[in-house]
Amino acid sequence: MSTPKRWHVIASAATLLVVATPAVVASAGPSDTDTARHGRAEWAGSWAAAVTRGNTVGLTNTGLNNQSIRMIVHTSVGGDRLRVRLTNLYGDQAVKVGHATVARPNTGTPDDRSDIDAATLRELTFGGATSATINKGAELLSDPLDFAVREQEDLVVTLHFPVLTGPVTFHGQSKVTNFIGATDLTTAADGAGFTIRPNCCWMFLSGLDVERRHTPGSIVVLGDSIGDGNGSTVNANRRWPDLLADRLVDARPEVRTPGVLNLSLAGNRLNHEGPEPGAGGFPGYNELGPNALARLNEDVFPQTGVKTVVTHLGINDIWMSGDSAEQIVAALRQVNQQVKARGLRSLAATLTPYEGHGNPGVWTPEKDATRQAVNSWLRGAGAHEFDGVLDFDAVLRDPAQPGRLLPAYDSGDHIHPNDAGNQAMADAVPLRLLGL
User: In degrees rounded to 5, what are phi and psi of residue 327?
Assistant: First the structure.
């Protein structure tokens, strides 16, 4: 879908007063007794984000320098232990991580998102060390940490980068406020030192896994800005994959539920690169990510315990790039083939209406005919190739004007669903198609 409005973050924080910080309990690295102590427990993804190259200007291009970033993540499933995944996939150089912590937010203070509960603060380690280097193009996995994670709870990960990182590897559409401040603030319970507060951007952070017994694995959503939450309420976790995770827990209270990993990227396309310009004067940005087939090896297959992939892509190829139905269907078929070749369940979703969105040329009757042709294929021949099809078009469209979103589900831009629309999408997913 269309990219959110660009932000311009000025990375010029003044020298800050550092308040007294609580003691930090260091995590132990993996030991020989781990397997015996935890029996048949397995790792599963609880939260994840797709990442892209930093943009050509701004903070994501210059990077962080003796700064800390405090990021909020919302788990889908819980477990007895956690580990955090950091990434420098798109970096131009190795990146030094000086210090890293995890905690629960302090919900009893006025600023309950940047303030943390000091009693829950724990230090993350890497091979037993409190600092580490993320090699260029690489991922860094923290040591397992005894930290009981609950289902659908917010956790706070704070990272300090003591020297200039260069261009960041990041997710640009977080729909949650994150926090940046000068110096090492990883143990600061009070969030006052975090003076840059954009409603965006998980930087260098790509996943949080939990250890569970008899886990059914994870569901990955490979989508665009509809899955990424454009149109949903900031800091409310009302994206449809979040709401699907809520529904799974509510529907299956007596059994283990799969994690839901939202690997959606606003503006992502099946057949085009993020910087490619589009219709209506849209310029393109790095943060829209590479084409979806390239994302399979980067975003989907490496996820911990992935069992099912839901692909909801193609609308941006229509409105931005003017692709034909044949081009979109060919890409969807290739995604399906590669997902199934990995032994994973493969689902697809129909493309939702967007009449009324954007400048002239963004929506045209011809482009809507392309959308309808793709949906007809998905409901017909495509339904026999994929393991199932989620008919989000039928859920969100206005029956009186099928090219438009139902007003009750329209966030106002005529392409992205609001909270109610996201709930309707989550409620419409047949759980049997998820293999449950």
Answer: -65, -40
List, in order, residues 6 or more apart from 19 with CB less than 8 Å away. Answer: 188, 189, 190, 192, 193
What pLDDT, in 10s, does the model give residues 291-316? Answer: 999 999 999 999 999 999 999 999 99
Q: Residue 233: pLDDT above 80?
A: yes
* Burial class, 130, CB count within 10 angstroms (exposed 0-12 / middle 13-18 / buried 19+): middle
Cα gap 421→411, rounded to integer Å:
8
Average pLDDT of the residues of the chain:
90
CA-to-CA dists, residue 47 to 15, 122, 394, angstroms? 33, 19, 28
Domain 216-435 belongs in CATH node 3.30.565.10:
no
Single pTM value for the model: 0.90
297 phi and psi, to 5 degrees?
-75, -25
Q: What is the tens place of the pLDDT at every residue in 154-176?
A: 999 999 999 999 999 999 999 99
Q: What is the pLDDT of residues 186-211, one digit of tens each?
A: 999 999 999 999 888 999 999 999 99
Tokens for 296, please give them. 């399979």
**pLDDT at residue 111, rounded to an integer:** 66
Residue 239: closest CA among 258, 216, 265, 204: 265
Please name every residue paired with 409 in a beta bridge, in sequence order, or none if there are none: none
Query: Which of 113 and 273 is assigned the larger pLDDT?
Result: 273
